[in-house]
Amino acid sequence: MSENRNEKTQEKPDFTAKLHMQSSVKKVIAVVSGKGGVGKSLVTSMMATKMKKEGFNSAILDADITGPSIPKAFGIKEKAFANELGMLPVKSKTGIDIISINLLLKEETDPVVWRGPLIGGTVKQFWSDVIWDNIDYMFIDMPPGTGDVSLTVFQSIAVDGIIIVTSPQELVSMIVSKAVKMAELMKIPIIGVVENMSYFMCPDCGKRINVFGESHTEEVAKKHNLKVLAKIPIDTEISKACDAGEIEMYQTDFLNELTKILIEMEEE
């Protein structure tokens, strides 16, 4: 059984952000992408949902401060609030604990026009000031790219593994390589790669169509000794579920292999 994150943090004094004294988080998984618009938040939402359905307590820390989309996918309208002990995350319909800047803003459309240090500080507060109650898996929806906010997160929070989300375009080689080098620099293990918008199944003829051309993800993953753990198709039902705030209701088998690997991590 995994040790309590408070105890693990004490063994690694280089991690500067400490959990709230009433929090307990066992495994922390960061979901990253080299660029925006490839489905990082979608994979974060779907994995938190999958682990919840497997019987684990899951949570999402939305670190994409300037582009938060997690509350929308889960249909969360209420705001997070604090008591004398700390800030409390908002629970989704199925009980996933979620914190996001949009749960603190007066209006969800209000822009966050902040400089990097303030954004990084907010993410650290989401880790330290929020009371995360008995969480088995926390998924951090990282901002796209490899900028200072990502660096702040990886220096401040003891991340157990990284999931890299990408798309089939030829540009993928450079994008994945940047994410891999960042993980290696921070000495964080990479769990694997998820390819989103991988293909489209024609509803009329049943033919598989590679909308973005032939995928280069497999060869790039092999170059870095990584496994492609899932290929998510272009599916209008996914878009409908996100737009309606019902991502938890979407049924999928695409992420079964990745789910199995995370369960094995919990047993280590």
What does this structure look like?
By secondary structure, this protein is an alpha/beta fold. It has one domain (18-266): P-loop containing nucleotide triphosphate hydrolases (Rossmann fold). The chain has nine helices and twelve strands. The strands form three sheets. An eight-stranded mixed beta sheet has the order 5-6-2-7-1-8-9-12, with helices on both faces. Strands 3-4 form a two-stranded antiparallel ribbon. Helix 4 (116-128) packs parallel to helix 5. It is globular.
CATH-defined architecture: 3-Layer(aba) Sandwich
Which stretches are low in confidence, meaning pLDDT under 50 for 5 or more residues running? Answer: none
- CATH-assigned homologous superfamily: P-loop containing nucleotide triphosphate hydrolases
Anisotropy-based shape? globular
Question: What percentage of the residues does DSSP assign to strands (E)?
Answer: 15-25%
Describe the oligomeric state of these chains in a short phrase.
single chain
CATH topology: Rossmann fold
What is the number of helices? 9
For the termini, the CA-CA separation is 6 Å
Count of distinct structural domains: 1
CATH class: Alpha Beta
| Helix amount | 25-40%
Instruction: From the alpha carbons, calculate the radius of gyration and give it in angstroms.
Output: 18 Å
H and E string: HEHEHEEEEHEHEHEEEHEHH
Sequence of strands across the biggest β-sheet: 5-6-2-7-1-8-9-12
Average pLDDT reading: 84
Structural class: alpha/beta
DSSP strand tally: 12
The major β-sheet equals: 8 strands, mixed
